[in-house]
Structure formats: C-alpha cells, structure tokens
Fold:
Amino acid sequence: MTSIKHLGLLQFKKEISESQIETCFLELDSLADAIPGLLEITHGPYIGTEGLNENFSHGFIMTFADQAAFEAYLPHPEHEKVKAIVLPCIQKLIVFDFNA
Structure:
C-alpha cells in the first residue's frame, strides 16, 4: 500500500500577524484527530538560506495512509472548516500531492 503526501506552501498576507499564523497551524493540527487515515502533519516556517522560497513563508506536509483516505479528506467537513479559517489569511498557496 502506498501512502500519499500532501504538501502545501503558504504565503501569508502581509497584514496577518504571527498570532493569526499560529492559529492557522493549530487549526491544521486539529485535523489529525478528525480525519481517518491522516497519519501525520508536520509544518513550519521557511528556514533556508538559499532564498529559493519565492516569498512562501511556511509549509506543511500531511501523510495519508492511502489514496482512499486522501480522497475522503478533501470534502471532509473538518477540512472545509479549517479552509474557511486559513484561506482568508493566504496571499498565495501551492499544493502538491504525491505517492510516497
């Protein structure tokens, strides 16, 4: 069985405070207990020195048990709730999904 990695790169709006960013990631973390088959969530700010982040300041990676768990996550009500909190804070977002 192949797990799925769900990678997100976030560029927050300039007016979003560190406290609001922290709230966004607390909400994201809450999905670990709410979504069946979501095995792990890791996230953090950009710490590189190469400067290749193109103004994306934070990233996250979610690991799903399999394709079915990932597909169930996308329309899940808890996911929609977190999106409603996080997306208004985002200037730009990249999401990339792949098999691991």
Observations:
- The chain has a mean pLDDT of 97.
- The longest helix spans residues 18-34.
